[in-house]
Design goal:
The protein is globular, with a radius of gyration of 23 Å. It has helices spanning about 15-25, 35-60, 70-80, 95-110, 140-150, 185-200, 205-210, 220-225, 230-235, 245-260, 270-275, 285-295, 300-315, 320-330, 335-345, 350-365, 380-385, 390-395, 430-445, and strands spanning about 5, 30-35, 65-70, 90, 115. Helices cover about 50% and strands about 5% of the residues. It folds into 3 domains: about 5-120, HUPs (Rossmann fold); about 120-155 and about 185-260, Alpha Horseshoe (Serine Threonine Protein Phosphatase 5, Tetratricopeptide repeat), CATH 1.25.40; about 265-445, DNA Cyclobutane Dipyrimidine Photolyase, subunit A, domain 3 (Orthogonal Bundle), CATH 1.10.579.10. Helix 2 (about 35-60) links the parallel strand 2 and strand 3. By secondary structure, it is mostly helical. It binds a DNA duplex through helix 5, helix 10, helix 14 and helix 19.
Amino acid sequence: MASVLWFRRDLRLRDNPALLAAAESGPVVPLFVVDPVLWERAGAVRQNYLVASLRSLGASLGRNLLLIHGRPEEVVPRIAKAAKADAVHIAADYSPYGQARDARVGTALKKTPLVRTGSPYAVAPGRVTKADGTAYRVYTPFFKAWLQHGWRAPADDPGDVEWWMPVGCQGYPSPPELDIALPPAGEDAAWERWETFRATGLADYAELRNRPDIAGTSSLSQYLRFGEIHPRSLLTDLGDADEVFRKEICWREFYADVLFHNPSSTTHSLDPRYDTIMRWTKGKQAREFLEAWQTGMTGFPFVDAGMRQLRDEGWMHNRVRMVVASFLVKDLHLPWQRGAEHFMHMLRDGDVASNSHGWQWTAGCGTDASPFYRVFNPIGQGEKFDPDGDYVRRYVPELAHIPGSAVHQPWNWIDGYAHGYPEPIVDHAHERQVALADFAAIKGR
DNA sequence: TTTTGAGTTGTTCGA
DNA sequence: GTCGAACAACTCAAA
């Protein structure tokens, strides 16, 4: 009997338990459904990356990837019927949209089972709980329990799979052309990046990961996002000395767990007081602030460098993500949701769980005891984590003439504004006080 | 059961 | 310049 293996965010053949499950019963129909909802949501950068990844997967299947455009609840049953499949195999998707979609597809499949094997996580969301069975809301206890829970060994190599296309394949979708270069997509590229990072970056990761001027991070985020490599594969290769990197992988799992238990937290603050009490900037001023932030024209060099990196590369260093997020929420007083939407539209690694809860953490309405007084100083952060100013000069050419660390304070440089760089759109010290006062009002309720 | 201490990523102020 | 304290309120786990 044939079966259908429906790829979604697991675009790989290695360490793929759902593939093993599918291959057990005979020929496998490798299906990818171009879901118009997710496609529209992705934005041009992720659309391009997805197509590149699908092409890579297709090549590794000997051009047998079955691409069909349409709503999954319509497409998947149709393909299963055409293949006379005994089952449709998937890796579980724990995102709110994925859960709802898979429920609809399961219903539409009627008697053909939708079999979930594995997930994009080492430990599936919902598995790690407190002693009373409820979900964690603080990271460190979660991390301890997650380690304690442990995970399976990577899945075996699938060997020779008989790929089969029972119907004609539709073409790859055509995203708008980009004038930016994305990293190489696909499973082989993911493993190559991982091996390079293991050999050259992992030992210094704890020290250098916060330096956006240095390539100190793993650059694996888009590979994890699209499942071109599984986190279990990374964890298996880690040693005792790699605790900091292990914890970063666990953050991804923690936020997936938090979102699983709070499906509305993509748009609603975990702390419900937050959405109703904060006094946000409104009207024309809000639109102008948002545009200045999005285009990297706030007059704060480190913030603007980050926002331009996002625009130019579809990616931003994590340290800078926190700084620009803090700036949007606590200096410009705009809701975290506006920033999260922009990130999801622009990021090649955009993941709804990590993105929503990264933003909520920064905004101070999410998990963990994010102290209300934690307002990042955009200048101080730049001087601390981009000490030579190289990061700012790389992305903000109007400041390229200012040497060293002085680039973080163009107002103190004699020709600082000679090349059209804008002056600061807000007074950070003042806005910090406003944010603290707002937050104190929330906590009083 | 109650208490206690710690909690990703910070900043400012005053000694 | 460096350094420690202070900046709430709540979650969680261990004592």
